[in-house]
């Protein structure tokens, strides 16, 4: 009986590993889209961040 209740419980280490992989995958997707936007139009993206304020 103890074995069946133990196997039905959630493994905490496995849950943390799955959550870490999902967050890493999400971060990778965001970085891919940002880099693709930069490659597509580098002047528009960089002009807003590097242009000094003259006013």
UniProtKB/TrEMBL annotation:
Keywords associated with the record: Membrane, Transmembrane, Transmembrane helix
Organism this protein belongs to: Balaenoptera musculus
Recorded name of the encoding gene: CTXND2
PANTHER family: CORTEXIN DOMAIN CONTAINING 2, CORTEXIN-1-RELATED
TM region positions: 15-36
GO cellular component: membrane
UniProt xrefs under InterPro entries: Cortexin
Compartments in which it is found: Membrane
Coiled coil regions in record: none
Membrane topology, record value: Single-pass membrane protein
Pfam assignment, any one: Cortexin
Keyword Transcription on entry: no
Transmembrane helix as UniProt keyword: yes
Main location: membrane
Listed name of the protein: Cortexin domain containing 2
